[in-house]
Amino acid sequence: MVGRLTTRFPKWVLAGAGLLFVLFAVLAAGTMDALALNRYEALNSESVAAREVLGDQFGTGSPNVAILVDATEGTVDDAEVAEIGRGITEALAANPDVGDAWSYWSPNAPETLASTDREHALVLAWVPGDADHVRGEVLPEIDETVVQSVDSPAAEVVLGGGDEIFRVVAGQAREDFLRAEMIILPLVALLLWAVYRRIAPALVTLGIGLFSVVGTLGILRVVTNFTEVSTFASNIALVLGIGLGVDYGLFVIYRFREELAAGRSVEVAVRRTAAGAGRTVIFSGLTVAASLAVLFVFPFPFLSSFAYAGIAVVATAILGAVVVLPAALALLGHRVVRKGPQRTGEEGFWHRTATRVMRRPVIAGGIGLVVLLALGAPALGINFGSPDDRIMSADQPVRTMYDTIRTDFATEDADAVQVVAANADEQALPAYAATLSEIPGVLRVDSAAGSFAEGDRIGEPGPDGAERFSDGTGTWLAVLPTGERLADDPIGLVADVRSTEAPFDVQVGGYPAELTDYRDGVVERLPLVLALILVVTFVVLFLMTGSVIAPLKASVLNLLSLSVMFGVLVWGFQEGALSGLLGFTTTGSIEPSIVLLMFCIAYGLSMDYEVFLLARIKEDYDRTGDLNGSVPRGIARSAPLVTAAAALLAVSFAVYATSEITFLQQLGIGMALAVIVDATLIRGVLVPAFMRLAGGANWWAPGPLRRLHDRIGLREDIPDEPGDAERAAQESRPTDTAPAR
Hints:
Elements: H1 2-8, H2 10-28, H3 31-34, H4 46-58, E1 65-71, H5 79-94, E2 100-103, E3 120-126, H6 131-147, E4 155-160, H7 162-196, H8 199-223, H9 233-261, H10 266-293, H11 301-332, H12 349-359, H13 361-376, H14 397-408, E5 417-421, H15 429-437, E6 442-447, E7 450-453, E8 456-459, E9 475-481, H16 483-488, H17 490-499, E10 507-509, H18 511-524, H19 526-545, H20 549-574, H21 579-582, H22 592-624, H23 630-654, H24 662-694, H25 703-712, H26 724-732
Antiparallel strand pairs: 1-3, 1-4, 2-3, 5-9, 5-10, 6-7, 6-9, 7-8
Helix pairs in contact: 1-10, 1-11, 2-8, 2-11, 6-7, 7-8, 7-9, 7-23, 8-9, 8-11, 9-10, 9-11, 9-23, 10-11, 10-19, 10-22, 12-13, 12-23, 12-24, 13-20, 13-24, 17-18, 19-20, 19-22, 20-22, 20-24, 22-23, 22-24, 23-24
Protein name: RND superfamily drug exporter
Region (Disordered): 716-741
Transmembrane segments: 177-196, 203-224, 236-256, 277-300, 306-333, 362-382, 526-544, 556-574, 594-615, 635-657, 663-682
């Protein structure tokens, strides 16, 4: 039906697509401002519950704003510097958006709020509210009215804190988005021209990618009216929108060229392309969308954002490739055909490679398997950790601030673990605080009963005295770790605090606990995500092939391909082998949600190529019944498409290696590598080796499943309709253009 519509009314279809594009563009214009600045937090977790009690009952919380005061000469105890510090503290306390503020210059302040050489000191503040409010409204105001208002040669002032870190990261991500857009679009256009050797199909294919990007941003703008969507979703919209739009456009145009080469008319070729290739594109898109939709399993807005973006990308890319592109092809006709002789399916590098592999499948497949396992071996040492300021470049002021804190301060008071008791026995408090202070790696415990270190009371209970830690009914304690314990094992620290027996009911929160709960929430659901992805992709590939062996093979090979991606992530980023080249600072760990996101995207794209490849092999096998010959022929017929698509997608992702945000560098390098490995080693070596060894079992399925596939399965072999031959002959007949006499 789509094919008939696009061939009968191509101009109307394109006009409708143009109006839809304009609507998407209008919506997309406000998307960047509507995207949210999500925090790393697990809703309904113990740490979030502790934060709420701390804020509601005690009027304080983990400091999310920090201001570093650097004495240009002398120390922070000098009168002029101290006056600046007290002035900043008072200005923050007077701000109606600030819930609590204290500093090195507050009464009974701990010495750890100053550096060991007394050249630097901190002002800390807690600002309640969501990330958008704090980062979008409060922090800019504090920066302008408090930080920038300090004009004294005695001190320099830098704004920091957890929310400031990720405000800067989000701003840098937006800059990277714009820079990537300026690089990717002309580069993809140039590569498309090199692939097609015709400017018209290159521009049309790029147009489908742009349609997907703008459409996705427009859809995300609508979604933001109902839920939070992370600002990082825009980066995914760009690279996936261009990638999938171009992928599907290439597939449809290559199929259209084949139909024309078979002698069919433009009208017939468009209809057959829309019916055959269109269904493959839809199935492929469903695979990618399903892989990203599993992110909804996680109750974290940060990860759900990528599910919304991924589904929107797939929907708009399919709409562009299956509806808009056929209409354009109906008007372009033979102008999309590559100039010069056309190769057949039994020519070229990939056909020869697959044939050689199938002659010695055990040796060739074994070598390919060893290479994949060797490259993926570092992934066994992956260490999931929490992000900090080191995800940004070292020349950012806030990053420089925290480098100073790590180097010159004994610890970081803002990263204390907070133990909250809404109702507490104050007589049991001293002993409990002393017990917590004996945990290895704990520098000090502040409480209403005083400050404790290694079991001994060492001083007053910190700024503002005991009333800060108690409201007469309940109490809370600040467990301050050493810098070494915080850097090496924050998760273990939180576990030790939670496992310490308390004389009353407590909830453990604070920034380390929030990151721990977020990490645990991600890691605990990884097996479920893996199972869901495997089941969904198995169903899609079964519907396409009618086999239960082919989907299993595809899943195993895709996991091997992804192991290479994770191996390079561990080797290059966790261990720091690429730090010199890319200019990032290694932390010895990988943030788990980025790994999960990369897994879902890479798995979906791998299955994307698998659908294209198996569709051609199965089509050839159904037509010829040749078990062995159909494999290299199918690979050769899909090779130009998959090679071109992989190159374009790898380039699109690789652009993010130039980012100043480590997350985006990981995404760019890892995804580009996964695409290249999948399109070369997997497709060219392991697929033909496996299919040669499996023989007839490649297409086996139990009787009930085979009958089910006969009813609802996907097939690309579209039969000719009555009149197709006559239309093709009429189109190929010379037209007399001489005027009538």
